[in-house]
Amino acid sequence: MKLKQRVVLLAILLVIFIFTKVFLLDNLEASAASREDQRAFQRALSGLRVALEPRLEHTLQSPWEIATQWVVPREVYPEDTPEMGAVLHAMATKRIVKADVGYKGTQLKALLILEGGQKVVFKPKRYARDYIVEGEPYAGYDRHNAEVAAFHLDRILGFRRAPLVVGRFVNLRTEIKPVATEQLLGTFMTVGNNTCFYGKCYYCRETEPACAEGDMMEGSVTLWLPDVWPLQKHRHPWGRTYREGKLAR
């Protein structure tokens, strides 16, 4: 091989070597960055994970009193909440001592009083997890698990302004009916082998009840804000009406 050809071949090999080294270094740096991203994600996930357990490590031994003290003008719960799991556990397990029709609104819900005097809002399951609601954005019913998702998204984003929500199964026959008011009890019915109720709200109808599977009903439980904090109504800047061609103010 002539000297000129050898030089050209060496130059090509050198260029290949340099590009290979740069590529490998880039990949190693990218892999290291990816691993660090994964570690950061796992740390964040670990900080957000909530274990539902009844134990309270607080001078106050009432989960309701603890949750009441969390509320301040700009947030519903603090960033560091070691008692969060105990409060959510209480919401999911405490005995129901009274059940009434839900607070006014468009969607079916029940107002429950839990042991210790805490108000919560129970929103029943209306759809299977994979059911798709077709039609307008306002078509169909609210999904109970959307309430749970909204609360945890609020935690992830660090807003801390959504009320606490947890999923719960209730036995309508043994847990709700014995403590229900006459107004709520009057909306109960049996459809097939399932216990159902339709409650009171703007769009609640006897022909569209929420039904349990037998007597067991899945739903979401939302913690009622302390009564010392009155709510103000603010008009939504992107409000809409439900009438064709009619615009909101």
Automatic annotation (TrEMBL):
Pfam families associated with the record: Fam20C
Superkingdom in the source lineage: Eukaryota
A biological process from GO: proteoglycan biosynthetic process
Protein name as catalogued: XYLK xylosylkinase
Keyword annotations: ATP-binding, Disulfide bond, Glycoprotein, Golgi apparatus, Kinase, Manganese, Metal-binding, Nucleotide-binding, Transferase
Family: Belongs to the FAM20 family.
Binding site for Mn(2+): D142
Molecular-function GO terms, alphabetical: ATP binding; kinase activity; metal ion binding; phosphotransferase activity, alcohol group as acceptor
Domain FAM20 C-terminal per the UniProt entry, residue ranges: 188-248
Listed InterPro entries: FAM20, FAM20_C
Cofactor(s) it depends on: Mn(2+)
Localisation per UniProt entry: Golgi apparatus
One Gene Ontology cellular component: Golgi apparatus
